């Protein structure tokens, strides 16, 4: 099956929260989900959002392998979950996220004249009362106040070495998080109503809002706490991977607006029948390799044949072959999953940040772009590496080190090229790569062209349905029905119609926008004067400007 | 028998059942989005942790007791060797235990709903009306049990109320059975009937979503994008359906 997945390159994240804000504007600026951030950016080390969500001894999210070697929800089996339906003992309170608030803006304009300036006081959105703001979704942003809170970071608690949260000796990076759209989603497994599901076509995990009965088991079962309870409608809501955009071949809003251009979107082909066995493997630290083994090589003729037999379209197979996700996970092996030990087989992966290492090297006066210095620092700087391993590989430092060494090698190798020095082939060879692969990886990571970052095939709908919703074929410009109801005017892809247009769906949006219109004539070179609004100079209407070569 | 007897013990129950059935069908057809338990657990959990399980497990036992008492005719139980005395003991003791759980749970829940500001603010008018009828039904039922079954001589409602309910279901209503029933039992029946009438318009609809299917379904659910219940495609408005061969339409 195919899975639409995301990878985030943490080295490039500047923690600007643009992704969070645009996501909020699009999806959660409604009452009941004021506190919910489908996309949030955490500063690590830090306790995250909601507070301490990674402490599964407290929240009982995700899966565990039981004594018989079978996979079971950490919160308990089916009967136990049903018996707890009247009160879910593992449900986070709204205060674990934060109490949503607004400000009394009205006061600023309506306050009577006085000696003091009027103040807009914070008011709780739950009670309407004045409130003290004591916590929010990113309260420990940039390690603010971390001397007091960072000790509660579940990853730090498991580390062997003591980490000082003092300004000079600490390290930090940002971790943007969305729903992981797991291959083995615990939220879906925990939903008593069966209202949550994984889409067969692209693996996006969604909530059927009509089927949800508000039992809230999904909220506690998700170890990433990325399912939110809308406290006004009583329904679960979560990141949809912006499926209406993905279906049109466009990136999610968080990816599109990412300032650092650090997000990658693409398909992964995987063997759905292998997922359960892989997630049930005994040792936590083997889960990363087990998940990698579930992925299929999109160039393998057998895989292609199997995909076609399953009904996958050619453009989807091609998209899987061009997928940046496949390159970063399987070819370069530098992307790692977030908390594989939760056994949900997450599908939003991360390229661990080299910057904590580079910062230490540079601050000590050494060359932060020299391969040998960096390699030595990766081996020596146990604290950041162990911390990253706690996030991305169930505590096993080897995969993190491999990934960081490749990033360091790329950095050093490309510096020589940029400076015009003789490129040193030994650098890529030291990390098992060649100069070609490391240059290709550099192009994907550093140049990061839009079309390389987002390889998203459009969703397929039956051809018949598309044709039915096209409207009258005579309504195109120049046709006999031109200008009549349904013709493509300038008001949108569905044109000006009398009454309701038929079936305006995301499925046919592309079909409709692709129709010939006045600005894109059916016969190139000819312009229909009846439709010309007098603005601009359509091609073919005026003779070419003399001396076209010179700038205007 | 007066007109009141017919009104209270025939017309009212039938009207309530009609509204109950049709109301649920219509609500399920047109308002699945509103069909939820509307939990307030995220606002407050300290009281809910005790009140909600107590009330729900209690009321489940109460419902079980009512099914046995009202719908299983006396001779059937006697056929299995359950004498009037055994039934009375069982019903009174088990019933009292369930009633204590239910009433205590409900008291906690109402206290919480009234005094927790966050919870009070999300309580709708319909919630309040529902609480009045739910609480009075439970209170009158408990009062009747305490008055007549524990401290009184014991009233055999299986000789009057139960046959009356069954007479409604067999469409041969006999209101005379209810005329001599003790006052608090009558009140209990009337408020319960009113509660059934309101039921489809309250959050009580969540009772019919008890997710028993969860015990047998596979853990991970897959759905196709093109499945009729899937997202992405809006059905055409009435009157704007495309013309299809009738054969295809019937296949849907």
Automatic annotation (TrEMBL), chain B:
Domain NarG-like: 6-225
Residue sites binding heme b 2 per the record: 66
UniProt entry keywords in alphabetical sequence: Cell membrane, Electron transport, Heme, Iron, Membrane, Metal-binding, Nitrate assimilation, Oxidoreductase, Transmembrane, Transmembrane helix, Transport
Keyword 4Fe-4S: no
Entry annotated with the keyword Electron transport: yes
Transmembrane segments: 6-26, 47-72, 92-111, 131-151, 183-201
Compartments where found: Cell membrane
Gene Ontology BP terms: anaerobic electron transport chain; nitrate assimilation
Region span, Disordered: 227-252
Pfam families according to UniProt: Nitrate_red_gam
GO terms assigned for molecular function: electron transfer activity; heme binding; metal ion binding; nitrate reductase activity
Biased composition (Basic and acidic residues): 238-252
Binding site for heme b 1: 56, 188, 206
Cofactor or coenzyme needed: heme b; Mo-bis(molybdopterin guanine dinucleotide)
Cellular component annotations (GO), alphabetically ordered: nitrate reductase complex; plasma membrane
PANTHER family hit by this protein: NITRATE REDUCTASE PRIVATE CHAPERONE, REDOX ENZYME MATURATION PROTEIN REMP FAMILY, RESPIRATORY NITRATE REDUCTASE 1 GAMMA CHAIN
Similarity comment text for this entry: In the N-terminal section; belongs to the nitrate reductase alpha subunit family.
Function: Does not seem to have nitrate reductase activity.
Record-given protein name: Nitrate reductase-like protein NarX
Biological classification of the source: Bacteria, Bacillati, Actinomycetota, Actinomycetes, Micrococcales
